[in-house]
Design a protein that fits this description.
Helix content: 25-40%
Radius of gyration: 14 Å
Oligomer: single chain
Largest sheet: 7 strands, mixed
Number of strands: 9
Number of helices: 5
CATH superfamily: Glutaredoxin
Strand order of the largest sheet: 2-1-5-4-3-8-9
């Protein structure tokens, strides 16, 4: 599969959010959507990232954006993460890794000399027509909202 790039049509996806509600890309037709992929609930970098987005959520919405976070954690983990940090946006539980694979963010990583598969931290900005208008490859977890607004 070719890597996604700016101008590509975003892959169609469907999954369950933290409450078991079905969410798909088509739910956001006609809206600008920020799809941010992150490795794991309740880890320092991921917490900093979602808190940056939470703290600037009203501003992001004012600029016309909807937000959707995606990781391979399950619904229960997402519920705890949302409750602990008062997150106002949904998190998709991609436990079967279909969405991370479709977006090309399920990658080989390494830590302490050990290699493993995991989710790359990457954000896709999708326009009203479902096309990718920007990709943020190097996410600044503490200032992610401003990266999006400046994109």
């Amino acid at each position: 599969m070719a890597a996604l790039k700016v101008g590509s049509k975003a892959p169609a996806f469907k999954g369950k959010d933290q409450d078991g509600n079905s969410i798909s890309l088509s739910d956001f037709k006609g809206k600008k959507l920020i799809v941010f992929f992150y490795p794991k609930d309740n880890t320092p970098g991921c917490t900093a990232e979602v808190c940056s987005l939470r703290d600037n959520y009203a501003l992001l919405q004012k600029n016309g954006f909807e937000l959707l976070g995606i990781s391979v954690d399950d619904e229960k983990s997402h519920q705890k993460f949302i409750t602990k940090h008062s997150l106002p946006f949904p998190l998709l539980a991609d436990t079967d890794q279909k969405v991370v694979n479709a977006f090309g963010v399920w990658v080989e990583k390494s830590m302490y000399g050990r290699t493993y598969m995991g989710t790359a931290r990457k954000t896709f900005i999708i326009d009203e027509e479902g096309k990718i208008s920007n990709i943020i490859e190097k996410v600044d977890t503490k200032d992610h909202a401003n990266q999006i607004l400046d994109a």
